[in-house]
Amino acid sequence: MASDEILQTLEPWSRLDGKFVMVTGASSGLGREFCLDLAKAGCRIVAAARRMDMLRSLCDEINQLNTLTVGGNGDGCRAVAVELDIASEDSAIGASVAKAWDVFGHIDVLVNNAGVRDRRGSIINISSIAGLNRVQFFGGIAYNSSKSAIDSITRIMALELGGYNIRVNSIAPGLFPSEISGAIFQHNLEILAKKMVPLRTSGPTNPALTSLVRYLVHDSSNYVSGNTFIVDFGSSLPGVPIYSSL
Fold it and tell me: Which CDD domains does the UniProt record give (predicted)?
């Protein structure tokens, strides 16, 4: 049995051909990584954010990948950029969502990374371990509260949208490289991780987070809803995240 066939059998979410995914906050950081990885898995991508120059660069990179043969209204494109500011008025957000919908005719999955509904699909909200009761740090009133709210919203949305066959889950990442955490990564986190993190390691967004996103996009997760998936190498188990002591 070929290695690709074995992978497809063990991890069917390694290929996601035919899935149409909208990713908000896609211009940089985790959102950008999610777009690239999902495109490599076969998804069509609607990349949404405020910074159109960065979105176009991302979409150009994705569209240079091998051309897909999936039907739709995308004129052969694998990724399309849509300007979206989640702080805008409802009408502006609605117009952006309508434009995103029109690109391919429908959306299967929303990765709510900046942080719509169909009668079937998956919504993936990106929160943080800062939203967990066991993780608190000075100066985190607004950030921690907003991330905790995302997890609560996830559970309520799962209740309300379940009747429409829409799954809603959130992912609570630990510390990963991004524009926000760039200064922290000037420290040698691998040395700290070996001393303080239960798994004695840290890692990149891909595959630590991207593999979980693929699973939640795939139909293998059809019965998974209302959950918050913690991806932090066990760093929050002691109750203090590693970056609070830096």
Answer: SDR_c (cd05233)
